[in-house]
Amino acid sequence: MPRDDINWTPSPGTSTDQPRQVRRILRLFKPYRARLTVVGLLVGAASLVTVATPFLLKETLDVAIPQGRTGLLSLLALGMILSAVLTSIFGVLQTLISTTVGQRVMHDLRTAVYGRLQRMSLAFFTRTRTGEVQSRIANDIGGMQATVTSTATSLVSNLTSVVATIIAMIALDWRLTVVSLLLLPVFVWISRRVGNERKKIATQRQKQMAVMAATVTESLSVSGILLGRTMGRSDSLTQSFSEESEGLVDLEVRSNMAGRWRMAVISIVMAAMPAVIYWTAGIALQMGGPDVSIGTIVAFVSLQQGLFRPAVSLLSTGVQIQTSLALFARIFEYLDLPIDITERENPVHLDSIKGEVAFEAVEFHYDEKSGPILDGIDITVPAGNSLAIVGPTGAGKSTLGYLAPRLYDVTGGRVTLDGVDVRDLDFDTLARAVGVVSQETYLFHATVADNLRFAKPDATDEELYAAARAAQIHDHIAGLPDGYDTVVGERGHRFSGGEKQRLAIARTILRDPPVLILDEATSALDNRTEAAVQDAIDALSANRTTLTIAHRLSTIRSADQIVVLDSGHVAERGTHEELLELDGRYAALVRRDAQLEPTS
Questions:
Q1: Share of the chain residues as helix, strand and coil, in percent rounded to the nearest 5
Q2: Residue 462: which residues within 8 A CB-CB, separation 6 or more?
Q3: How far apart are CA 410 and CA 414, in angstroms?
Q4: What is the CA radius of gyration of the chain?
Q5: Which of 77, 94, 189, 355 shows a CA-CA span of 20 to 30 A to 249?
Q6: Contact 518, 549 (CB under 8 A)
Q7: CA nearest neighbour of 276 among 183, 372, 145, 171
Q8: Inter-axis angle of helices 184-219 and 222-230, to 10 degrees?
Q9: 70-118 and 33-59 are packed helices; what angle lies between their axes, rounded to 10 degrees?
């Protein structure tokens, strides 16, 4: 299995500078401003209540206890208890609202990325490993969960607490406040250094996780297991996965240990600060300095500890945000990928579709660097007629067929449906108009009925049975122990190739498209199975415009028109008899096909 990750570069419209990225992250929370306002009010209230407690403590030590005022002492004690209760209630409500908002933002991100990928052209998925896509949605967005759900609230809460506490400390004694805050700028500088370091490691870690996800997706699928075991590569794949996992271990350790000693020094200094305050106050008293009461000192130390907790949390939050910026950058790269297949601003909607398909001076290439796959293709298929496309491997047959349903867009000329450029049609019309049955049939890990209803969710059981009968697969399904409730298995591996193909045909019959693309739908089947599938295809093709990309020429002799492609050009065209009489490329293909047919 390949181990190279897909290294995406942001598109020109994507800014990787940090301020712009932060603004973009903040815009994700814009729909939830009302809830966040409530969170802010709860945070402010909790901060004020928390800051009030040391002042109650000061009054207790300096007034209530020394003067023996029992009533005042009781009120102050009750105030401290009430402060703890209110702080807890505010904290629970704040956590509930902020977590809900965070999860909604996560949902919005997941949906936005998934929706964006659904709109990408087929070319994007042919050059991207499936595991890489899954990793962006699962690992990258999942890795942002703590940041999105709690960091924003933690940031506001701690910032409010720090500001309120500093104001309260100044109110108690500005000189002790200056001593307490001397080292704060150094702590901020250290935390920024740690954050940048962890951000770099986080980017490497997510890329490594994407590589692992791709390996797991490819090698632990049914097809991957079959390939690995039949090729004797199971141990080799395990070793390869072990090496990738080993690389992740190193990155995880580095991520967790990045700046750990520097942050530990900050914690030690902050823990030692009460001793510094007691020492400073004591020395000041001995040297004839201003008189500071015991209550003031205790209240100040209490505030200082209340300051250091949110201050340390703020520094840690800054580090966490720096780390999360790397994950956001990877998600924004996907959200900024240019969409090749787009719907016009005012697309054409067709209520009635006849099914005439025309290729007019069609050109196509995958990118500017590669040569043309198709060049100057002019073909018209009248409604209800059949076109067969044949030619050697790499001639552009499948690409031509995929232009009609806009799995690719032409790079020159146009493809029309009933005289309308398919690029001008709305997606709903195009999806209703064109059905595709390919050689590589895809079935979901769901029941037979669910797989069929993917084409028509509101289909009745009778409609399912009718479609299956037309595809000559109903009797086989009905004979299964669970009938239409049988789970087909991963990628349909509980069914044979011919059975899967007939299920795909039944699914397309259920959708009832007026235009049908058959992409070598029988090329991988044996003769007996091919005959059964061909009967199903004949039933499906009746009264439809059909474009058949043919591998076995015996299946397309009755086509109204046969086109021979060679190196992206139309080399020959005509009926089966006309092309045989021409004795050119098609005749040579027919002779080769006859030689490959078994004699018995």
A1: 65, 10, 25
A2: none
A3: 6
A4: 35
A5: 189
A6: yes
A7: 183
A8: 70
A9: 160
pLDDT in tens, 450-484: 989 988 888 999 999 988 888 888 988 999 888 99
DSSP annotation of 338: P
Sheet of strand 386-390, all strands in order from the earlier edge strand to the far edge: 434-438, 515-519, 545-549, 386-390, 561-566, 569-574
Where do runs of H (alpha helix) occur along 173-259?
174-181, 184-219, 222-230, 234-257
pLDDT in tens, 77-128: 898 889 889 988 988 888 888 888 888 888 888 888 888 888 777 777 777 7
Kindly state the tokens that stand for 61: 């030590």
121-128 long-range Cβ contacts below 8 angstroms, 24+ apart: 121/339, 121/340, 121/341, 121/407, 121/408, 121/409, 122/402, 122/407, 122/408, 123/340, 123/366, 123/408, 124/337, 124/340, 127/6, 128/6
Q: Which of 255, 241, 130 is nearest to 204 (CA)?
A: 255
DSSP string, 443-495: --SSBHHHHHHTT-TT--HHHHHHHHHHTT-HHHHHTSTTGGG-B--GGGTTS
Q: What's the rounded Cα separation, in Å, for the pair 338 and 12?
A: 10
Q: What angle do CA 455, 458, 464 make, to 5 degrees?
A: 65
Distance CA 467, CA 509 (A): 6
Cα–Cα distances in Å, from 265 out to 186, 262, 414, 553?
11, 5, 68, 77
CB 471 within 8 A of CB 477: no
**Does residue 410 contact residue 403 with C-beta atoms inside 8 Å?**
yes
pTM: 0.65
Phi, psi of 366 (to 5 degrees): -70, -40
Q: Which residues neighbour 447 within 8 Å (Cβ) at sequence distance 6 or greater?
A: 482, 484, 485, 486, 487, 488
Over the stretch 224-247, which tens digit does the pLDDT of each residue have? 655 565 556 667 777 777 777 777
d(Cα 399, Cα 413) in Å, to the nearest integer? 15
* Separation between Cα atoms, residue 409 and residue 594, nearest integer Å: 36
